[in-house]
Design brief:
single chain, 221 residues, alpha/beta, Rossmann fold, 2 domains, 44% helix, elongated, EC 3.1.3.18, hydrolase, HAD-like_sf, phosphoglycolate phosphatase activity
Length: 221
C-alpha cells in the first residue's frame, strides 16, 4: 500500500526550464561566453546545479571549465535570491497534490536543486502541500544516491516499499530504484518515455492526474 509520495521538483512539479536557462545565460554573457538554447537545459539538468554548470560551460566555449567556480557561485547566488523567476507549476499538478493530501498521503520533495532554492519554490508555489522538502546540500548526497528519499521515508515512519517516487529523468528512476521504492516516470517533464523505461520506471504517467490512478492500483500492493 502506498502511504507516501516523494516528488522530484524541476520537470516534475514545476517547469523551471526557462528559469534555469535565463539565469545561466545571463552569467554566460557576463563571462563573454556563448548563451545556450533553452531546450539544451532539458539535458543539462537532472543531476544538480553543479553538473548543469559543467555541461553548460563546455557547450558555451569553456571546455576546460576555467570559469566553473565563478559561474557556480553566481548561479547559486542568483537562484537563492529569486528561484521563482519564470517558474510555473505544470497543469493539473495542484489538483493532484490536493487530492493526494485528501487521501491522507504524506508528500515530500527530493530535489537536486540547492536546498535554499528548493525550499523557497515549494513554500511560495506549493504552500501547504508538502510535509518535507529536501534539496541539494552537503548533508545529503545528491541523486541518484537514495539518501533523500530514504530520509523522507524514515521521517514519515513508512517503509521504502510503501513509497512512490515520482520524477522525469534517468536520475530520478535510478534514485527511486536505489531506494527500493515504486518508481513512476512522468512524460510532462524534460525527458522522454524511452529514457524513463530504459532506466527502470515501473510505470509511466502521461499527466499528473494519472498519479491518482496509479496510487489506487497499488493500494493493496
Amino acid at each position: 500500500m502506498i502511504k507516501a509520495c516523494i516528488f522530484d521538483l524541476d520537470g516534475t512539479l514545476a517547469n523551471t526550464l526557462e528559469s534555469m536557462a535565463y539565469v545561466a545565460n545571463e552569467i554566460l554573457e557576463k563571462l563573454k561566453l556563448t548563451p545556450q538554447p533553452v531546450e539544451n537545459f532539458k539535458y543539462y539538468s537532472g543531476e544538480g546545479a553543479d553538473m548543469l554548470i559543467r555541461r553548460c560551460l563546455k557547450d558555451a566555449g569553456d571546455p576546460e571549465l576555467m570559469h566553473y567556480e565563478e559561474c557556480r557561485s553566481l548561479y547559486r547566488e542568483k537562484f537563492d535570491a529569486d528561484p521563482l523567476y519564470k517558474v510555473v507549476p505544470y497543469d493539473g499538478i495542484m489538483e493532484t497534490l490536493k487530492e493526494l493530501k485528501n487521501r491522507g498521503m504524506k508528500l515530500a520533495v527530493c530535489s537536486n536543486k540547492p536546498h535554499v532554492a528548493a525550499v523557497k519554490v515549494i513554500a511560495q508555489m506549493f504552500d501547504g502541500y508538502f510535509d518535507l522538502v529536501i534539496g541539494q546540500s552537503d548533508a545529503i548526497r545528491r541523486k541518484p544516491a537514495p539518501d533523500g528519499p530514504l530520509k523522507a521515508a524514515q521521517e514519515f515512519g513508512v517503509t521504502p516499499s510503501e513509497c512512490m517516487y515520482v520524477g522525469d529523468t534517468k536520475t530520478d528512476m535510478e534514485t527511486g530504484n536505489a531506494a527500493k521504492m515504486h518508481t513512476v516516470g512522468v512524460l510532462w517533464g524534460f525527458r522522454d518515455r524511452r529514457e524513463l523505461e530504459s532506466n527502470g520506471a515501473e510505470v509511466i504517467a502521461e499527466k499528473p492526474q494519472d498519479l491518482l490512478k496509479i496510487c489506487e492500483e497499488w493500494k493493496n500492493d
